[in-house]
Amino acid sequence: MKRHPLYLVLLLTILAVAGNCRKAEHSLESAEVSFAVSGRVTDENNQPVSQAQVRAGSATAVTDINGHFTIENVRAPKDAAYVEVEKSGYFPGSRTFIATSRATNYVSISLLPKKITGSFTAQDGGTVPADGGSITFQKNSITDLNGAPYSGPVNVATAYIDPTAANFTDIMPGALRGINSNNQERGLQSFGMMAVELTGAGGITLQLAAGKPATMNFEIPASLVSKAPATIPLWYFDEEKGLWKEEGSAVKTGDRYIGTVSHFSFWNCDAPFELVQFEAVIKGQNGSPVANAAVHISQPDGMTGSGRTDSEGRVKGLIPANQALILQVEDHCGAALHTQNIGPYTSNINIGAIMVNASTITVTITGTAVNCNNQPVANGFASLSLEGMNYRAQISNGSFTLTAPRCSANPADGELRIVDAGSGQQSAPQTLNLTSGNVNAGQVQACGVSTTEFVNYTIGSTQYSFTVPPDSIRVSVNPQHTSIDASYKNSSPEYLVLSFASTTTGTFPTSYLSVHVNSRYYHGSDVSVTVTEYGSNPNQYIAGSFTGVLSDSSSSGTTTINGNFRVKRP
Length: 570
Description:
The protein is mostly beta strands. The protein has 4 domains: about 5-10 and about 30-110 and about 275-355, Sandwich (Immunoglobulin-like), CATH 2.60.40.1120; about 115-275, Chondroitinase Ac, Chain A, domain 3 (Sandwich), CATH 2.60.220; about 360-450, Sandwich (Immunoglobulin-like); about 455-570, Lipocalin. The strands form 8 sheets. Strands 38-37-45-44-43-42-41-40-39 form a 9-stranded antiparallel β-sheet, with no helix packed on it. Residues about 1-25 have low confidence and may be disordered.
């Protein structure tokens, strides 16, 4: 079932735009309230992101080793409280919500990597591929942030956000709430959105010149093509307010939307609809509030929106007006705790308390960690993969304690690893059969498996290297394909993207190879990959080498490339 934020419950397009229901206006309340916000930040592979910078109002925090953060005493507008997360190598992540005063509000944010998908020279313009579409630039249409004309290479980093994706709620910025051209707030049904960032030589940030718009081509998800209107408003994300703003429109051409934009941020093709504010309190069988529970509100056709209860069990959000809806409360593992019919509503509504049979089950793993010399690990962490989630805990003086929520008390296998960051070694995976309560993993030796990740390559006679840390190496794996993305060395725009159609050992042709180094761009024309190691599970390693011939886009010539890699799979 598709999940979207609670205030984004999607209407079929014909209902959203036909105007066949009575108007219900919702206006933003700008009064500030004081509250706390807590959440978890993960990457595109659902791994926790540590050391990310988090901002809410004027307060800040840094995520811990497990991606968690908490900020107390936040002051922000009640109806548009806004949390923003930044981490080098990723597009900003954010969440906008209706805050509950003097309570802890919960959010979940997944960051999208800044992956350079194309490049062009500013003086020539051109069409570059984008994740989920393409972008066409006019000649001499690029300036620096001060408006000075820019000439030279332009790198285009993009990230497509599929509104039908299972994790859409976590990866989309803010919320699908927008201010239209008449300054009215609306709910939005997305038919595709994209993040775009332009950088030039030396990594400087670039922008479109005034009067020189770019043309964006958005892919419409297959399941939404038949519902997509012929013309749809375009909306950009206001990163100061945490809301979308209408600017221009796009025209449907086959399974694409095509429109022009005058600047870059997150852009979104959305059909608007009218809203009312909804509120309820979820309580357990003993009458106590159920915090951080998932609340889903759906139409009978299955289109669903989601929100989370705060520390007082309260859930507040914006839902479609004049629609019969279904409310469902779920635990953190997706098991239904309660279901009931609600609506239709023509004005704001508080339905009061909903009683559910809620229980909290956790497992706590303790143990000691030693290095290859059987000395306590001084700098490292314990990592647990359990029921599709990943958790970490810092090692302190050779000891660790890691607590993870369980979906039930039924036995399930968890995979524990101990990492010694100081020596670059880790333990072999240890399988633990877990139920609930306390589990002693005993002494675990972080030794025998290297944690070193690298991509080394030589172009012509010049050697280059990416190593973690400090560089960024990301890996994506699907059933038939592997992609390695190494980038952001010393905060410069150097990168290498290597893809091949296999998930086993052996020798294969590359399906894509692109390199940017020293302001030159290379693309693989005849390159093969030999994979010597391919871990079958998350956190295991993929290793091998590659060799062949590259095309030099700067000179229209060719050159040789040879390299090797060892990377950790998600």
